[in-house]
Amino acid sequence: MFTMKSVRIARHVSDWLRATTLTAAVAALVFAALAIPASAGPGNTQVSGIGVFNNACQPPAGSPPGDLGDYPPIELSDGGLEGCWYTYVSASKFNPSGTYIEQGTEIFVGCLNGTKCGTFETTYTFTAKYVDETFAEELHGRCHHPIVGGTGDFATATGVILFKDDVVNLKFNYRGHISL
Questions:
Q1: Same domain, yes or no, for 21 and 55?
Q2: What's the number of domains the chain is made of?
Q3: Residue 17 DSSP label
Q4: Is the pLDDT of residue 142 over 90?
Q5: 27 and 72 share a domain?
Q6: 174 plus 85 within the same structural domain
Q7: CB neighbours (10 Å) of residue 27?
Q8: Phi, psi of 48, rounded to the nearest 5 degrees
Q9: Taking the model in full, what pTM does it have?
Q10: Mean pLDDT (whole number) for 91-106
């Protein structure tokens, strides 16, 4: 016989299993990205640097897209990529625990090491933890961005860029690799 207490326990266990499965999937994705060797292919270039929100971001080459995205552009500098990063959200979910997951696409317009210029597109998954549903205070966050296409010198680009939020200094540390 089922009681209200047993139904609540079953729901709690189900919610816990769903959250645990999501956390494990995200962790596996991050570990898989970290396991990609530095010599993933010919023409592989390691990048790392800093990004900051900048409404006035102007790419060093090319033009911003007509739609600047769902967030202010992120200006990337100091580490290989110089240009503007535009984000387009396709799905998001905030959980009562304060965890947040977001998915979508992005466009980078700019240059690699000041010599190879064009655009590349990524898909992304962002995961974060917030104090509450107001998004007023982020505790930590990170993003995984596989490159899925490009133009100009990035027409054949492959690779992955990882972002980690610096919630104290309000910047995004990025690292990854691009193969042309």
A1: no
A2: 2
A3: H
A4: yes
A5: no
A6: yes
A7: 11
A8: -165, 145
A9: 0.74
A10: 93
Range of the domain at 157: 40-179
Structure tokens at 92: 């998001």
CA-based nearest residue to 74, from 136, 160, 161, 177: 161
Tell the residue number behind the tokens 């490009």, with chain if given: 150
Single out the residue of 163, 161, 69, 152 nearest to residue 118, CA to CA: 152
pLDDT single digits (tens) 143-167: 999 999 999 999 999 999 999 988 8
Under 8 Å between Cβ of 124 and 104: yes
Q: Which of 130, 140, 139, 85 is nearest to 109 (CA)?
A: 85
Asked if residues 27 and 19 have their Cβ atoms less than 8 Å apart, the reply is no
Task: Examine the domain organization and report whether 116 and 161 are in the same domain.
Answer: yes
Output phi, psi for 42, to 5 deg: -65, 145
Give the integer Cα–Cα distance in Å for 22 and 101: 10
CA distance 174 to 119: 17
If DSSP codes are grouped into helix, strand and coil, which group holds residue 29?
A: helix
Asked if residue 47 and residue 81 are part of one domain, the reply reads: yes
Residues 31 and 54 in one domain: no
Compute φ and ψ for 41, nearest 5 degrees.
170, 175
Q: What are phi and psi of 101, to 5 degrees?
A: -130, 140
The pLDDT tens digits for 31-67 are 444 444 444 445 789 999 999 999 999 999 999 999 9
